[in-house]
Amino acid sequence: MRPPLTRRGFLAAGSGLTAATALPALSGCSALVAADSDPDTLVVHSQLGTTAPGSPTYLASLDRFRRENPGLKVKNLVNGDDLAQVYETSRLARKEPDVVMVNLYDKTLAWTDVGATVDVKDYLDDWGLRERVLPVALDAWTDGEGRLRAFPYFATNWPVAYNRALLDKAGVDEIPVTGDQLIAAARRLRAKGIGPVTTGGNDWTGQKLLAQIIQTFLTEDEARHVYSTGDFSGSRGAKDGIEYFVELRDAGVFVDKAQGLTSDSMTTQFNTGAAAIQSAMSSALAKVPESLARHTDVAGWPLAEGAAHDRPTILRTYTLIGFWISPNGTKKIDAIEKFLRFMYRPDTVSRFIKESGRDMALRSDTVSTDFPLVAAAQRLGDDVSQVLLPDVYVPPTATQPLITATSTSFTRGTGAAKVRAALEAAYRSA
């Protein structure tokens, strides 16, 4: 895996990179055509445009923007999970797109610091868009130097979805709120041949659930320290959280072979009724079939005795997708202003909520009426306690090693000490 950009690495790579060496590296990706010098063509690089949640609404919005701005063309480049890598390669070749739509995670944490993207704070204020953004989202996108990395856009709630019909079939009368109740429910579900909690133990979904469970005994400040430093052994709360996770895992709470599953496996198991429970962000909740959503409840993750929280926990983040401006984009800033004013318009934002079930980092009174589980997650309020999403605190070079450590952690029989060692090793490899 190529390491994330650092100022030294970025400059070193850029100094020896010529068009002859850069273009072959780009030949398999859409960023090859990103270097459009036409001032009337805005180049946007996004994960929206194929099967990603919100893609149809995004493409329809682009068509509407083009109709309203006939003299301005928009070229939409699409990549999936490799978007950050593709963008970095195009930036090194000075052929990067003008706007990038991606989340604040892993490689992107370093972009503004190394000049791969620009601070957008002044643009936000000059264009009068600050009041459109939720204050908590602005805080999340602002780095330690006070720079606003991107224009916030998508957010997400991340509760736990419970299939009531399967719980009823197994004789589980109530949604579990304690670890003991969850273990008892898992045993009853297994006795009926139903998988209990499904999760992608081999990717980011399992990583986030593990982090959520570890935080059972951590305050927000303690969690921030643990995930910034990787010191899982020096924190009593982190050690207790890992022991709680191991207790749940070895009691059979997670589906068999969870350590090899992915987010797609998790979604399939839940949506087909093979498993009764999943930790699901908004985009996954939006995919739950209507027939299943009618008998699905959303709630928090059950607590253990002595927890630092007084209510079951959920994750929540406002950094799912933002609009980043590249150095090339500053040459077309008038076009970008038109584009972002359009994307921030209340009617455009409402379409994402109504048509795609997206949570937004912007102010809106629109409710996801066609996505009842997304709306239910928005209404959880004080019924749950929010724990820290560690993405912006984990060093970028530890992100992928942490997923490997997550798979190890979900392997039944791995003791708490070995789980701690695996998590800490991910930071040492950074």
Automatic annotation (TrEMBL):
Residues 1-34 form the signal peptide. SUPFAM superfamilies: Periplasmic binding protein-like II. Gene3D superfamilies: Periplasmic binding protein-like II. It holds the Pfam family SBP_bac_1. Transmembrane segments: none annotated. It comes from the Bacteria. Keywords: Signal. This is ABC transporter substrate-binding protein. The lineage of its organism: Bacteria, Bacillati, Actinomycetota, Actinomycetes, Kitasatosporales.
